[in-house]
């Protein structure tokens, strides 16, 4: 994804929180997810270029995925 774009993420399960970590493991953003909403938008305009980890937290085990911001 290019820096400054809006990222749309889909909450397909019952996760309540989305956490974004930079490549050094620092928390960049933490967003509460409304259970009735299936999609959420995050702006990457304040994020420097690099690799990020998106981590969904809630019921069950957390899930994560990698995101490259250019």
Category from helices, strands and their pairing: mainly beta
> Averaged pLDDT, please?
84
Spans of at least 5 consecutive residues with low confidence = none
Count of DSSP E strands? 6
Largest sheet: 4 strands, antiparallel
Rg over CA atoms, rounded to whole Å, is 12 Å
What order do the strands of the largest sheet run in, or round the barrel if closed? 3-2-5-6
Count of helix runs? 0
Q: What would you call the quaternary organization? A: single chain
Termini Cα gap: 6 Å
Beta-strand fraction estimate: over 45%
Order of helices and strands: EEEEEE
The best one-word shape is globular
| Helicity range | under 10%
Set down the secondary structure blueprint.
Elements: E1 6-10, E2 15-21, E3 27-32, E4 39-43, E5 50-58, E6 63-69
Antiparallel strand pairs: 1-4, 2-3, 2-5, 5-6
Task: Give a brief outline of the structure.
This protein is mainly beta and 70 residues long. 0% of the residues lie in helices and 56% in strands.
């Amino acid at each position: 994804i290019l820096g400054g774009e809006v990222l749309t993420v889909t909450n397909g399960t019952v996760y309540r929180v989305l956490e974004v970590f930079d490549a050094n493991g620092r928390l960049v953003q933490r967003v509460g997810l409304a259970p009735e909403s299936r999609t959420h938008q995050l702006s990457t305009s304040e994020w420097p270029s690099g690799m990020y980890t998106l981590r969904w937290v809630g019921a069950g085990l957390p899930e994560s995925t990698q995101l490259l911001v250019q």
